[in-house]
Amino acid sequence: MSEAKPRRWMLLSLVLGLLLTLTGGAAQAQVARTSDDPLASLEKADGRFDSAATAAETETVEGAQPFLAPQIRDGWLAFQLSLGGAWKGSVDRRTGQIVDAVATEGRGLPWIPGRRNRLLPADIAQHLKGKAKPDLQTLESIARAFLPRVAPLLGVAPSALVLAPGRSGPRAGQVWLVDFNVFAGGRPIDGARVFFRIRQGNLIQLGSENLPSPGSAVPTATRTRTQALTALGAYLGGLSADDRFLDPGRLHLVPIAVSDSRFADGFAFGKGRGLAAVWQFTFKRPGSAGTWQARIDAQSSAVLELLNVNPDKTVLYAAVDFPPTASFYVGCTNLTCTADSEASGDDMGIVNYTWTWGDGSTTSGGSSVSAPTHTYAAAGTYTITLTVRDVANQTSTTSHNVTVSVGPTAAFTFSCTGRSCSVNASGSTSTVAITNYHWDWSDESVTDTASTTASHTYAYGDSFGVSLTITDVNGAMAVVTHTVTVP
Questions:
Q1: How many Å apart are CA 248 and CA 353, to the nearest integer?
Q2: pLDDT of residue 106
């Protein structure tokens, strides 16, 4: 290395040190942006990624009635009837699904003891699990037990939801928010969520955002990260060691707008949003203002987007290496947990992720292990710890506790005499106690019970898909459906 380059960096360090002293803390240094940004001419956006439903693409359930699928129309009616009709709903025209439901007239559905209901702790004992008052785990358990009633309306499978702890929890005004990330093909969908809002003990709102249309294909990557990075380099005219990657490449599942010019909306009702798999890179380049994000098609290596995502594009950022931030969320199914550290970050890029799983196992490596999966040998509560390290060997650590168990298995037998049917779920199994048996009789009637047996009389003859959803003491669920024919 020549002597000139160290001297330039020494001078820059002195200037930055003086700046930090004058501002009283760590901050990225700013210098005037040059008039000729080398990347500005390459900036491009893909309008398909702006697929969130606008106000014009959302309408009331009543207004959308002629277009709704029968199961959505009838399901919404059954939902209203079961709750006294005091709910207003909105439909996302891109998906044809309920996107928002709000309790009217200050009502709502009692979930936890509060000022708006007469619930007692004993009424939710199966969700409290011995605790004196509800916490986030309690609210998640209640939400998961409730999901089978509304999941078809929202267009999402309960098993596809993973709690987002950072967006969930108590809020001001005796409000709780229970917010879930939505997964498809084992990956989170960027920006997709299902949420429940509880006020003074009652559920007052539920909804979703950025869900794909029913039946949307889940794309798989046919291009590797290396191939995507090569395509980015070709588009930029080359990559160099001076390029600083804040995100060195991670596979994302992104909602995209699906167009159809035959329709006035520009898309077919219920078929207006799909999914794309993209490799996403975030980087800084000397001499260029801000921070750049590139999205590369994971199936063709086409460069779809190159955007300056820094909100202030009028300044040029010099290199000041701040410590990284470790953050992750985790979701578990039976004994297997998947963690994702996408919320972790560093101004110069994270070079190593080290996961300790609380059972003596460790996973360590670069971006390829930023979202690992681990299977435990036995049920129990474990502490998962993530430590991230940046290029300057600065580290950050965070931990979360998880409880895993062997999931339950739902099973039942049935017998009918005339239009009266009896069911028996004693064949269902679980390594821990089963706390609830939820029966959906497929005629807009449901039964929740702690008993393994139940009965139901149909008002008319037909073939019905009777579903049983069991929930164990850890909140794990299992579903089975049988066709029952009555004369």
A1: 13
A2: 60
Right CATH number for 329-404 from 3.40.50.300, 2.60.40.10, 3.20.20.70, 3.40.50.720?
2.60.40.10
**CATH architecture for the domain at 413-486:** Sandwich (2.60)
pLDDT at 343: 76
Q: Which residues of the chain have pLDDT under 50?
A: 1-35, 314-319
Q: Would you say 309 and 18 are in contact if contact means Cβ atoms under 8 Å apart? A: no
- pLDDT recorded at residue 348: 65
Q: 476 near 141, Cβ under 8 Å?
A: no
pLDDT of residue 5: 39
Provide the pLDDT for residue 195. 96
* C-beta separation of 163 from 125 below 8 A: no
| Helix, strand, or coil (residue 480) | strand
Q: What is the β-pairing status of strands 380-390 and 244-257?
A: unpaired
Residue 19 is predicted with a pLDDT of: 39
- Integer Cα distance of 272 and 264 in angstroms: 12
Domain 37-46+217-313 has CATH 3.10.450: yes
Residues 252 and 280: beta-carbon distance below 8 Å: yes
Query: What stretch(es) of the chain map to CATH 3.10.450?
Result: 37-46+217-313
Instruction: Give the chain's end-to-end CA distance (angstroms, integer).
Output: 88
Provide the pLDDT for residue 334: 77
Name the strand (E) or helix (H) holding 351.
Answer: strand 350-356
Give the pTM.
0.63
Residue 14: predicted pLDDT: 40
Q: 93 and 269 in contact (C-beta within 8 Å)?
A: yes
CA dihedral 225→231→232→238, nearest 10 degrees, is 120
Tokens for 248, please give them: 């060195």
